[in-house]
Each structure stands twice: as C-alpha cells, then as structure tokens.
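Limitations

Structures in this collection are predictions, not experimental determinations, and the ligand pose is part of the prediction. Treat each record accordingly. The example that follows, with flavin-adenine dinucleotide as the small molecule, is included so readers can see exactly what is and is not provided: the inputs are given verbatim, and the output is the predicted complex.
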Amino acid sequence: MIHTHTYDALVVGGGGAGLMTAIYLSRAPNLRTAVISKLYPTRSHTGAAQGGICAALANLEEDHPEWHAFDTVKGSDYLGDQDSIQVMCEEAVPVIIELEHMGLPFSRTPDGKIAQRPFGGHTHHFGQGPVRRSCYAADRTGHMILQTLYQNCIKNGVDFYDEFQVVDLILSDDGRCGGVIAYEVASGDLHIFRAKAVEFATGGFGRVWSITSNAHANTGDGVAIALRRGIPLEDMEFYQFHPTGIYRLGILITEGVRGEGGVLRNDHGERFMERYAPTMKDLASRDVVARAISKEIREGRGIGGKKYVYLDATHLGADVIENKLPDIADFCRTYLGVDPVKEPMPIQPTAHYGMGGIPTDVECRAVDAAGQVIPGLYAAGECACVSVHGANRLGTNSLLDLVVFGRRGGIAMAEFCKTAELPPLPANPTAGIEEQFRRLLVTEKGEPAARLREEMQDVMQDAVGIFREGPGMEAALVKVRELKQRFKNVLVMDKGKNYNTDLLEAWELGNLLELAEVTTVSAINRTESRGAHLREDYLDRNDQEWLKHTMVTRTEDGSLAISYKPVVIKQFQPKERVY
Ligand SMILES: Cc1cc2nc3c(=O)[nH]c(=O)nc-3n(C[C@H](O)[C@H](O)[C@H](O)COP(=O)(O)OP(=O)(O)OC[C@H]3O[C@@H](n4cnc5c(N)ncnc54)[C@H](O)[C@@H]3O)c2cc1C
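Predicted complex:
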C-alpha cells in the first residue's frame, strides 16, 4: 500500500545535523515540517560522540576564531574551502552559547564557565602548541547534544516519522527536488512524502570498512541515493581513520584521552609520537597520528609484534579518568577487561569519518557538477561536503559542523519555502524503488548479504585504508565491482513485510557497495598524498595539479564520470604541513 503526505519542509535524519535544522524550521511561522528517521532519533550516531565540540570561547586561555580557522585549514591539508571554514569558526562561538541556553549540560570550570580541553591539531598563535578549545560534557558530549536537540524539537511540536527508511529522492522533470520515498519498517508500506524543500542529514558510511568506530546503521544511504539520482559526490577519496579504536573491535577511544594527557607507546615502551610530530606529539592531527601508529605496527613495534600499540592513561590518576572519561573507562572494563586506571589500552586505527559527500554551498544547498544549485535539495552533517574538513577533519569539528550548518540549513530552507511552489510529482514516483525491492525479494538461491559485506569490508580495509597504492586499489576496484555483480543475486531470506530488517540490510549493502566503488575510483584517480589520502606510490602533496576537489557523478550509462571544482582559498596560502 502507498501512502502520501505533504509538508513544506522535510528533514531526513534525526542526528545532530537533522535535529538542529528541524529546530530552526519549527521556529518559522506556518511551516509544516517533519523529520524522517530510520532510527529512533536519539539512537543516531551523534549520540556516540564522546570527546567534544570546539569553539574559540577562550574560557581558559586566549583563543580566536581566526586561530581555529587556521588550524582547520591546515588540518584539511589546504583542501578545505576557506569561506565555509570561516563561517564555521565564527559561528561556533554563538552556536555553543545557544546550545548552553537550550539546556545542554556542559562540564564546567571551577568558576562556572563551559570547560574546555585540548584536541588534536587545535593550536594557539597559528601552530605554536595545543590550546584548550573543545567544549565537552564529560565523554558523553554527543549524547547530551542529541538529547538536548531532541527535547527542543518535541517542545516545538516537530512531526517525527521514526523507523521510516528513506529509499529514494523525488526529482521533478525540471530538476527540482519534490520530496522522498520512504519504507515504513513496521509495515513494509511505501510512503510518498512531498515537500518544497528536503534536507539530507543521513550521516556517515563507516561500515564500508571492517575495523570501524561507526554504528551498524551508518551505511551512507543518503549519499548513495544522491549518487543514483545523478548528483555528484565530492572528495570521496578522503576517509578518516581515527588513531585510537579498541584493538580488533574498532570501538572508539576518544581523542579526549590524549587531550587529558594520555600518550601512545610502542612495544619498547617508547613515546613514539615525539619522533613524528615534535611540537604537537600525541595531539598532532588524526591522519598524522593514525599513520604513525600504522608505521610502528608495520615495522614490528606493535605490542608483542601484534597489530596494536598502547594508549597509556595510567599516569592521569583515577580522579581524571573516572570524572572526565567515565564512559571510556567503562568500555575498556566491559569489552577488554582492562582497567585504564591501572593498565594501558590496546588500540589500533579505526575507520571513522567521511570528509566527502553531497556537495553543498554555505547555505547547505546541494549543487551539481557544474556548481548549479539543485532547487529544493539541501544536505548537512556528515553526509554533506561543504568542505570545512577538506582532506582531513580535526577532532571536535564534526559536532560543530552539524550545529552550525544544521542551523544554516534550517534558516535557508524556511526562507526558500516562503516563495517556492510544491513541484509536480513525476509519473510513477515509486516505480524505481519497487523494482529494486522486488529484485531483492525474488532470489531463491544466492549469497547472503553478510558474506558480500565482509568481503567488501576486508578488501577496503586492506587496499583503500590508511596506506594506498595504485595496483592494490585497482585490484580492490575489480573486487568491489565483482561484489556488485554478485549482489544482484543477494539472498534475502525473510520474504515478509513486517520489520523485514533482512531486506533493509541487503538494500543498505547496495549503498555501501556504491560508496566503496566511488571511494576507490576517486582514490585511484588522485595521484598525490594529501591529508587522509596517503599514496605510497605518490608520497608528496602536489598543489600544482591536485589543489582541487574531486566530483564523481554516475552517468546515465552507469559509468562514473570525474570532474573537478576549485578550492576556495582566502587568507591562508597552502604551506608545508608539520606538527
Ligand atoms: C564513536 C564516534 C565518536 C565521535 N566523537 C566525536 C566527537 O567527540 N566530536 C566530534 O566533533 N565528532 C565526533 N564524531 C563524529 C560525529 O559524531 C559524526 O560525524 C556526527 O555525529 C554525524 O552526525 P549526523 O547528524 O550527520 O548523522 P548521524 O548522527 O549519524 O545521524 C544520521 C541520521 O540519519 C538517519 N538516517 C540514515 N539513513 C536514513 C534513511 N535511509 N532513512 C531515514 N533516516 C536515515 C538515521 O536514522 C540518523 O537519525 C564521532 C563519531 C563516532 C562514530
């Protein structure tokens, strides 16, 4: 059965970005707004964010938005767009105060101000050493943000469609976005949601890799839908590996541990980051630290020759650990049987964050490969690429990106809805997706999604992870394309309609495979090393040829076309990057 709903504005995703947009939409008069989310909103991955959200509040020492902007540009390896970065760093200060006024329970300094701690790559005086810039609520910052935003949405009467999975975008024949198609998880019914403006805030796609900090639901649905609908994806070769995931499990140990003074040690007990980043040491940017750890492991200095090193917080004392990092202590005791007060934690880098995604301008309007705005379509948060993170994101800049651009998206959509008309529905809007689901359900003999997913994750981890080189990635691309073929015959055991998570997981695997392919194609194409993208066959950054964004579009014949977009450079000229 197909149901139809009509709104002015729709937000797809109930994480930090989507909820911030919804709050702003709900404040606009006479605007009918709904949030559609495949998860109950407070289960979104934003709730797993631990370490903090940064802003140059200068509560504990001198700090300025310009210093923050410089650090972000340098962290991005000069690929971040400096107009967006400036907006983010300037709006950081008022937006944190706004969160505080909404009721967010930040940790406090003894005199009652919002507490701040250092994080990787955040410095004072343009690179002169760590600065305390990250605001936090113990190690549950994301959880507190999500709860605060959700409560405010409820207070403002936002409509929620929870456990509705958006499976397609409605584009009218003249190229305007006119809504989405969603699959109701409980009933298996399709719903057509019509609207003048739609924002994708569907989060990341860390499930492409085998060792990942990302939740099971982080399958990049919005990004993959955009690709299928002919919208380009920007800078997909840049995927961040966080230095400190729990060995083999990938569960994140926040950088806040190093912010509070924790250090990395190899098998000799050596504090090896001193060799790689003499000034910032353990608080260098993530790409630098993740690479250093991987190098130690490769050169045989992992603990006992194994694939991990130690994160040592034992010298911090029980007080700091129990009060400032309580959840981390809990994870380690539960999942590892390790008490971080007494023993070091075994860690390895873990797939963490997609710098690339759906290209947008600073008003969160999605743009096509020619840079033209797609009327009515917006994107914010991890699924978007407004390019504040460039080739490598700094810790605590993502939560900031969510609230700054979530807010901007809400304001821009409300303004757009004042004059926009509802686009006409194209003929048969659900035909494409019905066909996709029908195909998934007819197979009687095939391979389970879990097997294909594991093969994809393994090859991506090995060949399109922290270290990359041409032939390895070419082989990975062949493998991913073979998996896409095999996926056509994926076996969904559950043929029912109610809570068919088997079907949805297979559909999500289809998305992950698309994104694995685009990531690999983009990474093969970029013959230089920059930020998170390290090519052992092209070790240097090459500004002459590669100071540009990659745009990959699925063309009508099914192939992937590559084009480029210039980087916006303002006051910070590209320089060599040392920490
Ligand atoms: C373990 C961990 C710790 C982190 N710690 C920090 C930190 O301390 N500081 C920091 O700045 N960043 C941190 N990050 C990064 C940051 O948390 C994420 O980038 C950010 O929360 C993403 O927010 P989002 O709103 O874009 O998406 P999410 O919070 O992931 O929400 C996505 C939403 O989209 C919905 N959705 C997805 N697909 C569909 C679909 N098909 N149909 C309908 N709804 C859909 C989901 O239901 C969900 O509500 C961390 C990330 C992880 C994984």
